Amino acid sequence: MKVDLHTHSTYSDGTLEPEDLISGAAALGITHLALSDHDSTAGLEGARKKAGELNLQVIPAIEINTLENHSSVHILGYFIDDKDAGLQKTLDEHREIRLKRAGMIIDKLRHMGIRIDLSDFNDRKQRAAIGRPHIADRLKEIGVVFSRQEAFDKYLSKGKSAYVFYQGPTPQKAIETILSCKGVPVLAHPGYFVSRETIEGLVQMGLAGIEVYYPSHNPDQIRNFLETAKRLDLVATGGSDYHGPGSGHEALGEIDVPERTLEDLLERKRKLFG
Ligand code: AMP
Ligand code: ZN
Ligand code: FE
Ligand code: FE
Description:
Bound molecules: adenosine monophosphate, zinc ion, fe (iii) ion
Helix content: 40-55%
Oligomer: single chain
Structural class: alpha/beta
């Protein structure tokens, strides 16, 4: 059994189709994979189909970027009911906000003489969530940068000239959304500047897990987050946050997630929802 609980496909800012993501994961010996696209569950259909052929289990998941005190807090939801109408309505709203924000980023770039159009993303799948990485890829295509990373470093990161913050939901709203479709809410990559106070506040809102095993977490952070998980009764999860070839986030198969994590998540789900 080999587990990865954090991956993205072309239905958000991953570079691989869900089917290819599943094939790649299976080739690396992964047996249980969560597809956790940003604000879209549309990749699950293809992922499940392919996974059925390859004897891999897909865990339905979501990643919701939220805004808390001007900083970005990402909440993952596991074993969600992706058919839930309320969930889909909320995700539709998030994708609308993302589209508007992409338009604002494009306006800023245009003022700097860099011309890309929102229509460049028309071939974007209807139910896919657009994010800064898509704009980064387009900047690469037109020769303004050589990589996604360079686009972020020069234009798209917080503080850079074409940065527009994402007016996402509050963490409270994201946690409620996940709980309302019987998902287990988990704090993603807490190593990206999430304070102890913030984590304790999230637990009050219903947070049930924390992503401990993550490519950029060093051994001290892993120890620290494991201790946090124990202290606050959170499930310790982990994943690669794989975004596909050329994305700069390419650690598929490189994260060791303890086998009991899946059972812990399912047990928490039973405890919460019966
Ligand atoms: P967005 O959802 O549009 O705010 O974009 C967030 C996504 O962009 C993250 O999930 C990462 O995939 C990627 N990302 C964010 N910051 C950076 C960065 N500094 N360098 C490269 N990729 C980044
Ligand atoms: Zn992403
Ligand atoms: Fe994230
Ligand atoms: Fe992610």
